[in-house]
Specification:
- The two termini are 26 Å apart.
- This protein has four helices and seven strands, in the order ββββαβααβαβ.
- It is globular.
- Strands 1-2-3-5-4-6-7 form a seven-stranded mixed beta sheet.
- It is α/β, with parallel strands linked by helices.
C-alpha cells in the first residue's frame, strides 16, 4: 500500500525521481525510488547502512535509481535510528540470527510482491544489495539455503 508519493528534491547532478513511501509486511515501511522514464526498469532491493532509513540512504538510493533502477529501500530497524555503528551492530545481528531467518525471508518476499505491483518495474529482473552494514544482510540472503525460494533475486 502506497502511503505517500512525492518528488524527491535531488542535487542538480541527479535527475528527478519519484519517492514512494509504502507500508508492507507487518506494517513495515519502505521507500521505492523510481526514476522518471517510460520504459520498464530492473528492480533493486537495497538494504540501508548502520544509520537506518535516513535521508542519506534515500539520496544514495536515488543515485542508484538514476542509473535505471527502481529501488526498494526497506527499513531494517523498524523505525529505530542508531547513533553509531556499534549501536546498529546488535540490530543487524538480530536480523541475521538463525531463528529470525524465516521472518527476514518473509520480509524480503513481501517486498518483492510490492515490487511486482509497481508499474515501472520488470518483475523478472530483481537484484539485491546493501550499503555498508546492509551488505551483510544482502550477502546473508544470497548465501542462505532459502535463496532458491527467491528465483528472481540476484546479488548485485
Amino acid at each position: 500500500m502506497i502511503i505517500a508519493a512525492t518528488t524527491l528534491a535531488l542535487p542538480a547532478s541527479l535527475q528527478a525521481a519519484e519517492l514512494r513511501l509504502v507500508e508492507y509486511h507487518q506494517r513495515n515501511l519502505a521507500y521505492i525510488i523510481v526514476p522518471r522514464t517510460d520504459k520498464k526498469l530492473p528492480a533493486l532491493v537495497l538494504f540501508h547502512d548502520w544509520a537506518g532509513l535516513t535521508e542519506e540512504a534515500i539520496l544514495q538510493a536515488a543515485k542508484i535509481a538514476e542509473q535505471g533502477y527502481a529501488v526498494f529501500l526497506p527499513d531494517l530497524f523498524g523505525g529505530k535510528a542508531p547513533q553509531s555503528k556499534e549501536e546498529a551492530q546488535p540490530l543487524v545481528e538480530a536480523i541475521l540470527e538463525t531463528d529470525h531467518q524465516q521472518e527476514l525471508m518473509a520480509n524480503v518476499h513481501s517486498g518483492l510482491q510490492v515490487l511486482e505491483n509497481v508499474e515501472e518495474v520488470e518483475p523478472v529482473d530483481v537484484s539485491i544489495s546493501g550499503l555498508g552494514i546492509g551488505e551483510q544482510v544482502a550477502s546473508y540472503i544470497s548465501k542462505s539455503d532459502m535463496t532458491p525460494a527467491l528465483p528472481m533475486l540476484t546479488h548485485a
